[in-house]
Amino acid sequence: MRGSEQPRKANPLVDLILSGQAPLPLRQSAARGVLPLSRTDLVRMMIALSGDADEQVRKDAATRLASFPETEILPMLEDASASPELLDHFGRTAAGVPVLQAAVIANPATAPETLRRMAPLMTTAQIDQMLLNQTRLITAPDLLDLLDSNPALTPPQRSRVQEIRRHFLAAPPQQAEESAGASSAASAAAVEDEPRAEPETAAGISATPDPDVAVPSDSELASVIANAMQKIMRMNTADKMQLAMKGTREERAILIKDSSKVVQEAVLDSPKLTENEVEGFARMRSLSEDVIRVIAGNREWVKNYSVIQALASNPKTPTGLAMNMVTRLTNRDLKVLAGDKNVSEVIRRHARKISQSRTQRPGSQ
Known about the structure:
By secondary structure, the chain is mainly α.
């Protein structure tokens, strides 16, 4: 999985250039991209050299940096060991590439200062993504103020900002940290970056009303989630696997984001798992590709149109799988997907092509 790779060894040549002590000929060669270095090291150097004292070095570095395709930059930004400088650069300059900015927002290595610069300019979908990581918001509460002043903030999102302040920031520090972790993980079942309105609790868990079940209030649900998280934090992997199979919806929402792959698989194998939960997982952009692949590979689950639509529109769905899902969408959803800048251009283009071909058919709707 991305983010779990072994740390890369430092390259002395790269360190010399990044330190600002490299002689001009070496900086010139680096700016032209002729040094035998990895893509990640090249990008890091271009970012540093784009502010070089030499004008030609700056121009060459900027040109070379702009030549890297989105598909090469994205894995760098999703890597949990990415340098803060790399994340900061694309957080500030990738405004026209939502998928890159989404990766910066989601990466735990992104510095709070980077997010402070991004917060006032975030789109509604990006604000949703920020609100999912409540632990980060509690450790840097001024981010809540910046989000609150963003004109793209929707009324439901403003309510979530207020809930975070009320439930966590007013609590003692230790309690706030524990509760924040619980709510952040439980929001895994939220409708992530989902434009369609659904009943939603304060913790972000999609709550489809059941006439035979009493719906808890936001405060009651927050308490349930906090208690579940505290219990899970004391468990070993074997205990988590048992809970994944037998636990509650809230507990599964926490465990699906566990760092252990076997725990995630146990959640997906749970006999108590509902299609509504699977749909929520399929929309999540914070889950690993492994989990997305399991969902996409389950024939029963992909009989559910909502799951298909969720997978097709999730940027974390591998391209090949996503393209298969796109072919099964309705004309209406194809048109929506074709204009969704949160997914790759490959998927948007595929959706447009299918939509146009259907429109040209005699008798098409």
